């Protein structure tokens, strides 16, 4: 199914309660299993809380981008974060979420392209991201969009997971991130 063009806007702190369930549903819990980006077999608990989203929105050089579908009554269908690192001319792409019931329809490609354009328009020459190393299908999706898997490895933030709430825990050991980069 081909998705009609989305509309985008930057999130404000007041949007955080709307964004949190979208991010949660894309990665954790039973609802996430309706899509292909689920982490439900790797992690349980809260992926990010409302306060964490507000923090991202308020962080200097950070933008949380919201995607809306005009064909679905302007429903929120996706989001992401772009954290600019001006001294390195690089943007970091994170908090990427698409409604799991709408995944594999082109929304993610539009959100990613919009994030790359945002980063480029703010001086970034590269975009980087981290992906849990076991997520081969997700890494392959990014590679098809021009990202290269680097040799860099970043540790998984187990301490942040533990701070979120008492339900958060990893279901598998040896979680860490691969770093992917794309020239913009």
TrEMBL record:
SUPFAM superfamilies assigned: Acyl-CoA N-acyltransferases (Nat) (SSF55729)
Domain N-acetyltransferase: 6-166
Matching Gene3D superfamilies: 3.40.630.30
Superkingdom: Eukaryota
Chain ranges passing through the membrane: none
Classification via InterPro entries: Acyl_CoA_acyltransferase, GNAT_dom
Pfam family, one: Acetyltransf_1
Protein name stated in the entry: N-acetyltransferase domain-containing protein
Organism: Podospora pseudopauciseta
């Amino acid at each position: 199914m081909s998705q009609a063009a989305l509309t985008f806007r930057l999130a404000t702190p007041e949007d955080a309660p709307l964004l949190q369930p979208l991010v949660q549903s894309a990665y954790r819990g039973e609802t996430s299993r309706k899509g292909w980006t689920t982490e439900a077999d790797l992690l349980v608990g809260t992926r990010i809380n409302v306060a964490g989203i507000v923090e991202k929105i308020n962080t200097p050089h950070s933008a949380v981008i919201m995607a809306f579908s005009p064909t679905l009554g302007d429903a929120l269908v996706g989001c992401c974060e772009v954290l600019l690192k001006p001294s390195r001319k690089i943007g970091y792409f994170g908090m990427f979420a698409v409604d799991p019931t709408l995944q594999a329809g082109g929304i993610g490609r539009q959100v990613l392209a919009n994030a790359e354009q945002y980063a480029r328009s703010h001086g970034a020459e590269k975009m980087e991201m981290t992906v849990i190393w076991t997520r081969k299908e997700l890494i392959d999706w990014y590679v098809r969009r021009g990202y290269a898997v680097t040799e860099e490895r970043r540790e998984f933030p187990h301490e942040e997971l533990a701070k979120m709430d008492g339900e958060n825990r990893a279901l598998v050991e040896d979680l860490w991130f691969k770093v992917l980069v794309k020239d913009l």
